[in-house]
Amino acid sequence: MSIQPEGEDLRKATKWISDKLRYEQNVSMARAIEEACMKFDLPPKDCEFLMRFFAKRSEG
Question: Each residue of 17-52: pLDDT tens digit?
Fold first, then answer.
């Protein structure tokens, strides 16, 4: 069992995706999100949140 606060994995995943998109060439946003969801073992609702969050971020 982890002692991390609730939502900590989502925050880590968000930072991980941001870094991956910034520093790696030819990586798609969808692929980075998919990898983060597996790496941080996120539930589907958090994966959907990440998709919406990064879609809005890329628009504006």
Answer: 999 999 999 999 999 999 999 999 999 999 999 999
**What are the residue boundaries of the structural domains of the chain, listed by start?**
14-59
51 sits in which H/E element = helix 44-59
pTM for the full model? 0.84
- The DSSP element (H or E) to which 5 belongs, if any, is none
CA–CA separation, 10 vs 37, rounded Å? 9
Radius of gyration of the chain (CA): 12
DSSP one-letter code for 54: H
Q: Quick one: tokens of 16?
A: 């991980």
